[in-house]
Amino acid sequence: MADKIPASALQLHSLVKPDGELEVRLAELPVPSPRDHEVLVRVQAAPLNPSDLGLLFGAADLGTARYGGTADRPVLNAQVPETAMKSMQGRLGQSLPVGNEGAGLVVRAGASAAAQALLGKTVALLGGAMYAQYRCVAAETCLVLPEGASAADGASAFVNPLTALAMVENMRRDGHRALVHTAAASNLGQMLHRICRQDGVALVNIVRRPEQAALLRGLGAQYVCDMSAPDFESALTDALAATGATIAFDATGGGRLAGRILGCMEAALSRTAVEYSRYGSTTHKQVFLYGRLDAAPIEFANTFGMAWDIGGWLVFPYLQKIGAEATQALKQRVAAELKTTFASHYAAEISLADMLRPDAVAAYAARTTGNKYLVNPDRGMARS
Amino acid sequence: MADKIPASALQLHSLVKPDGELEVRLAELPVPSPRDHEVLVRVQAAPLNPSDLGLLFGAADLGTARYGGTADRPVLNAQVPETAMKSMQGRLGQSLPVGNEGAGLVVRAGASAAAQALLGKTVALLGGAMYAQYRCVAAETCLVLPEGASAADGASAFVNPLTALAMVENMRRDGHRALVHTAAASNLGQMLHRICRQDGVALVNIVRRPEQAALLRGLGAQYVCDMSAPDFESALTDALAATGATIAFDATGGGRLAGRILGCMEAALSRTAVEYSRYGSTTHKQVFLYGRLDAAPIEFANTFGMAWDIGGWLVFPYLQKIGAEATQALKQRVAAELKTTFASHYAAEISLADMLRPDAVAAYAARTTGNKYLVNPDRGMARS
């Protein structure tokens, strides 16, 4: 608490101009004073999640990126292709702060008891604008990290842990008994594997490469299906028949994968069918698309009858649907198992200014397995 | 009742042999005696619905059809393409009766009071095997037609009327306030138009050709969007914005249409959006595919955010979901409005043997608007 709090501080902003130019830069803004129910947090760790990249770079083509500004105040410019401008209409001309989640130290607190109780504590935060030196939030939204947990430990306490837990919750509430996950070697995928193992839920992991399959098998995963293997569909059908999984969460969100999963689910179900129905199995088969790793159009031939659904899925609307009490139970589990079940791993820790370095952008924008970056806005800054 | 009931009678059967040959013929089978709770119905009218054609011809290529047998006992053979045989696995070698619904005269009744009460009545039936001279069913499944209604009037009392009513019911129960329908000039589409007009529900009709648009406008339809018009998507977006429709029932079930509808729904919603969200509108957008008029793979680029679903939909599983009481209410409405709201129109009435005439097959298998056929198994048969 001895550090002096500056009058103004840095925050990363992303702007798409009406002519299609993206500009990402560090804005200097007044540091707010917390109101009664609020706390001011010095942000010390914020992950670069796939879900942040969409807002950070919009639909810009990073192949056109130009890096300017100074070492302390870098600026990235890039062009949004004409064809993608339609999807940018809602944000044109708005300088938007970025960063869904983070963690840091509470350095100032409002007058309320709830706010005062957090002073000096390390807390996890959710709510946008986390790529910033300071962030002012309502005390009630903070998750106090357990003894011994650093800001880096708590930086990813919301998005991935709640997403993985909500997937299992959704599976149970909709009456499914096992689930499928794609891009399964990701941080999120490994977390889901640990939850399912702990809860005794069968998980079918779909990965894109042999080394990802090896990684998951090394962690003890029982059902791992590699899309690059020639027998992918028959291996997947076997795994679906063995587990009875009829719900999938797909991070790729494009191409033919969702349809292939539904086709294999139907093939697995038809192994035990007793009577012919030209409408296919009556068991409902569900694929939720929760990411967009694959930008290709979705395409599938319907080989799986009529009892199926493909839809978008987002964790926070889902938590809203199940209500505050159920959500609180999930959050408590995250806090209790922060350094075990919900541990995240990062390839590198970078500063706010580093976020706009060409090599860093190239690395984290690739969204490859094991290449997740952690931003530390407290790093490389003069403490006055 | 004076007619003598023969010991055996004709029933249309469809068989796909393991080598991929389809064979459709008239089988002669013993006429069953009704048990206590059953009635025997002389079938006098059964429509050829799109939902019947799938079972009737399987995945056979009718371009390969060969017509044989005699005038009284015709036989149709055709070949199922190698690539489609996977979808036929469940029915190989089974000689299957066809015909989802029909109507006719109760000519014999079991001992129960419910069965006896139906003797001499004209009833509508559901439950398969309706392309037959006689059909034995449980008394409780019969819908007694109102005074003055013929078997032809009641032949389509189940599939189309309940489908149209269930669509409106589904719209209401899921919290939508208007709906979209494709292939909207069909018998079903015209019925849905009449229901929606009566109920004060806004309906957006999508058709494929100008003459279909003219037909619906002639019936008083307010929102008609013609896919062949160059401004189809902007007209559809206008109609969606005007009505607030966020649920669609799509009979085509293939190609790009479902994705285009979702894209236009999102565009309509974004007209009134107040804040940018990179996940798109939070209003849930739903497309149900209930038919397969378009055999092309489903394809779409996601331009509509994360709050959407595309799924299969069938009327009878949906009625099961809403329960017996709600379903009964819908059936009562059908009986009460059989000759008005739920009237069907047929291009021709044909006999069982006519069903396998080349010109008839060519006409009804094309599934074109205004070309629905009614089968009268009582027609052209010697009454002994």
Automatic annotation (TrEMBL), chains A, B:
<dbReference type="GO" id="GO:0016651">
    <property type="term" value="F:oxidoreductase activity, acting on NAD(P)H"/>
</dbReference>
<feature type="domain" description="Enoyl reductase (ER)">
    <location>
        <begin position="20"/>
        <end position="306"/>
    </location>
</feature>
<keyword id="KW-0521">NADP</keyword>
<keyword id="KW-0560">Oxidoreductase</keyword>
<dbReference type="InterPro" id="IPR036291">
    <property type="entry name" value="NAD(P)-bd_dom_sf"/>
</dbReference>
<dbReference type="InterPro" id="IPR011032">
    <property type="entry name" value="GroES-like_sf"/>
</dbReference>
<dbReference type="InterPro" id="IPR020843">
    <property type="entry name" value="ER"/>
</dbReference>
<protein>
    <submittedName>
        <fullName>NADH oxidase</fullName>
    </submittedName>
</protein>
<dbReference type="GO" id="GO:0070402">
    <property type="term" value="F:NADPH binding"/>
</dbReference>
